[in-house]
Amino acid sequence: MTAIRTVVLGITAVLIAWAPAALTQEGGAKPAPVEAFYCNLQPGKSMKDLMKVAGSFSRWAGKNDPTYAAWILTPQFATFTDGPQLIWLGSHPSGNHMGKGLDAWQAGGGDIQEEFNEVIACGQHGLASSVEINAPDGPPEDGVVMFVECSMADEGEWQKAIAGHKKYAAAMRSLGAKNSNWVFFPMLGGSSDRDFDYWSVATFSNWTDYFAAYEIYMTGGGWQKGMESLKGAATCAAGSATVWDAKMVHKPAR
Q1: CB atoms < 10 A from the CB of 24, how many?
Q2: Is the full-model pTM beyond 0.85?
Q3: SS3 for 32-72, per residue?
Q4: What's the DSSP call for residue 154?
């Protein structure tokens, strides 16, 4: 999160050779930097304590980093013993905005930083470039977010992967699902030995919409559309999906 950037612990930066080309979208929104802090609560602290500090951060960001959006994600369907208790997910509309926001934070966010450090401990800070696939409703506020690990079928054939995800997302919407979709390409702060290329990301306004899409996927032809759309373009690992509650803690100025 912008609020705890100084917690980064010697993480290796990974720049994918094909990423700059993959993130040049034709006729779509520009890619946006998305950061994620993987965190656990300090002993004796609760989500209530974190939300209090997040409120202080939001007031600071409103004055000093107004284009920043932030959510706190908590796992609903995941392996709880292996993963973090929460993720702070933050986004700027561009790298230029992110750089200015980080400079502002390092210059004037120290007091709130200390408040965060008392409540959470974060062991990893990663950065991805977010590419919009199909987001007619825009980024969600509170809601549900699902991450799935995916790989390109052919090395470097990112165009096919993007086209396949666009086709799949549109097909699910046509069947009645209320999904919005992005792909996140890992850029910084990751591991060089991961066995996937990117995350497919789907968001929903609530659990009713999520499980309506689940039903469409299972019994309404959704999985067949997925197989058809991604054939020869990408593979997404079965069982890799994790699903999280998302709480917006700072809404950017428009």
Answers
A1: 11
A2: yes
A3: EEEEEEEEEECCCCCHHHHHHHHHHHHHHHHHHCCCCEEEE
A4: S
Taking phi over 0 as left and psi of -120 to 50 as alpha, with beta for the rest, 118 belongs to alpha
Evaluate whether 1 touches 60 at the Cβ level (below 8 Å). no
| Rounded (5°) CA angle 118-124-128 | 125
- Name the 3-class secondary structure at 198: strand
Ramachandran area for residue 242 (φ above 0: left; ψ -120 to 50: alpha; else beta)? beta
Instruction: Print burial letters for 221-252: b (CB count within 10 Å at least 16), e (below 16).
Output: ebeebbeebbeebbbbeeeeebbbbbbbbbbb
The helix/strand/coil state of 78 is: coil
3-state secondary structure of 86: strand
- The CA-based angle 205-151-238, given to 5 degrees, is 65
Single-letter amino acid code for the residue at 5: R
Quote the strand ranges of 92-211, DSSP E.
120-134, 143-152, 180-188, 198-204
Q: Answer for the pair 29, 132: CB distance below 8 angstroms, yes or no.
A: yes
CA 83, chain centre distance (Å): 15
Contact indicator for 199, 150 with CB cutoff of 8 Å: yes
Ramachandran class of 70: left when φ > 0, alpha when ψ lies in -120 to 50, beta otherwise: beta
Helices 158-174 and 222-230 pack at an angle, to 10 degrees, of 160
List Cβ neighbours of 142 (8 Å cut-off, separation of 6 or more). 205, 246, 247, 248
Under DSSP, is residue 223 helix (H, G, I), strand (E, B) or coil? Answer: helix
pLDDT in tens, 26-84: 445 689 999 999 999 999 999 999 999 999 999 999 999 999 999 999 999 998 788 89
Q: What is the DSSP letter of 75?
A: E
